[in-house]
Design brief:
The protein has 4 helices and 5 strands. By secondary structure, the chain is α+β, with helices and mostly antiparallel strands. The chain has one domain: HIT family, subunit A, CATH 3.30.428. A 5-stranded antiparallel sheet has the order 1-2-3-5-4, with helices on one face. A hairpin with an 8-residue loop joins β2 (28-33) and β3 (42-46). It is globular and about 40 Å long. The termini are far apart. The model has no long low-confidence stretch (mean pLDDT 95).
Length: 141
């Protein structure tokens, strides 16, 4: 089931306000977060419009977290962060998704909780494409 007001369900203009679709994984979509204070930051969004992890079966949950792990491995391989933080929120956007936030010891917000959208670093289309290609390359490995 899809929600016509949900960026993860509908993509297009709604998603483009904050993200760029990268690809589909087994039960989710991988999205690059446009604000790149944390180089390589992505979102893994579940394929269906559900709000809570308890709204899916154990098998679907396991597949979803396999997708999260696969995306995190690609981010680690592509950008060598010191840590990837995982955030699962949805107070206002009721669609199951996880933020993958690469953190770097000499970088923005090391040692603290990440800001949802610090609005500090936006890139050119070419720079976004380069990041996406690095992630896709590692997903294929």
């Amino acid at each position: 089931m899809k929600d016509k007001n949900c960026a993860y369900c509908m993509r297009g203009e709604l998603l483009e306000q904050f993200g760029i679709y990268i690809c589909d994984l087994s039960v989710s979509s991988l999205i690059l977060f446009k604000e790149q204070s944390h180089k390589g930051r992505c979102i893994v969004a579940y394929k269906e419009h559900v709000s809570e992890i308890v709204d899916i079966t154990d098998e679907e949950r396991n597949l979803f977290f396999t997708d999260v792990s696969k995306a995190a491995k690609a981010i680690h391989a592509a950008f060598s962060p010191d840590k990837v933080n995982y955030g699962a929120y949805g107070d206002t956007g009721h669609h199951l998704h996880v933020h993958l936030v690469p953190k770097y010891k000499d970088g923005f917000e090391w040692g603290g909780v990440f800001e949802m959208n610090p609005k500090k670093i936006f890139l050119s289309e070419a720079e976004y494409s380069e990041i996406i290609e690095k992630i896709k390359k590692e997903l294929r490995s």
